[in-house]
Each structure stands twice: as C-alpha cells, then as structure tokens.
C-alpha cells in the first residue's frame, strides 16, 4: 500500500474543515479517493477538508490560485467585518480578527465566534452585512495544501 495515506489522515485531522487541498491527478488521486476507505477525515458535523483536482501538470499553479483566492476572500471578509464593528461589538470583533488558527482550540472557538457573528447580523439588511453573509467562513484561517505524486513532481524518468 501507499505510505502517504496516514500522513494525509493526520493532516486532515489537524486542519479539518479549515483545510483546502489542490490535488494533482495521479497516484495521489488513487490513494486519496479510493473507496471503501479514504484518508480524508471529517468531524462530528460531517465537515472536513475541501478537495479539488487538477487534471493537468499545472497543480502548483492551481494550488497557488486557490491560496490567492482564499486570502482575498479572507481580506474582504475582514474588511466587511471592520465596517460592521459597531453592530458586531468590540469584543467579538477583536476575538475574530486576532485568531491565528494555529491551535485546534482556536479553530473551534473561531467557528463559535463566526456563528455568533451570523446571529448578530441576522436582520441587518445593509449591503455590507449582506456581503459579509457570503463570506463568514473565510474569517477562519485556512490552510492550503498541494498534493501530487512522483509523476507530477517530475522525478520519474
């Protein structure tokens, strides 16, 4: 069998629903998506990493684009949150913007903060609140990973 699956399982357990994977087509697709078992873990709510696949040899670029898009969405969400600071409340605002996402406890607390934010913005029909309503999960720090096999890494032949 492939030795990569335990590593992927561990990484998904560490980052969970805050993990995004850009996967290169090849052996990583087989050991990562082979049923009846898969190394990708989910939490008690059934949420886990987002997995995308690039068919061509551009997975590094594909993954970089995923990272840039993720960063931009977080930047926008933080900008909207800043504009709604008074409505949200200073304590919740500070808790959300100071999250670094490096500890599982922090990630779990950030999800609670985001849910509280959603509750506080319910009924707020301003354009900024509506815009933020599409992006609240992006307030949590995301970890983007690029997976590929030896063929994609150009170390065959």
From TrEMBL:
Record key words, sorted: Coiled coil
Entry keyword annotation includes Protein biosynthesis: no
Claim: Coiled coil is one of the keywords in the record: yes
Coiled coil: 100-127
GO biological process, one term: response to oxidative stress
PANTHER family the record matches: PYRUVATE-FLAVODOXIN OXIDOREDUCTASE-RELATED
Annotated protein name in UniProt: NifJ
Organism in which the protein naturally occurs: uncultured prokaryote
Gene that encodes the chain: nifJ
């Amino acid at each position: 069998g492939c030795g990569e699956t335990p590593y992927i399982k561990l990484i998904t357990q560490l980052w969970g629903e805050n993990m995004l994977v850009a996967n290169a087509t090849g052996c990583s697709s087989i050991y990562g998506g082979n049923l009846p078992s898969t190394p990708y873990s989910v939490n008690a709510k059934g949420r886990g990493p987002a997995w995308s696949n690039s068919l061509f040899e551009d997975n590094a670029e594909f993954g970089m684009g995923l990272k840039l898009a993720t960063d931009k969405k977080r930047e926008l969400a933080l900008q909207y949150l800043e504009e709604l600071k008074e409505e949200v409340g200073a304590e919740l605002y500070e808790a959300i913007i100071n999250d670094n996402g490096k500890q599982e406890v922090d990630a779990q607390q950030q999800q609670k903060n985001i849910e509280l934010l959603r509750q506080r913005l319910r009924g707020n029909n301003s354009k900024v609140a509506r815009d933020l309503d599409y992006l609240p999960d992006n307030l949590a720090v995301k970890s983007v990973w690029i997976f590929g096999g030896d063929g994609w890494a150009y170390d065959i032949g």
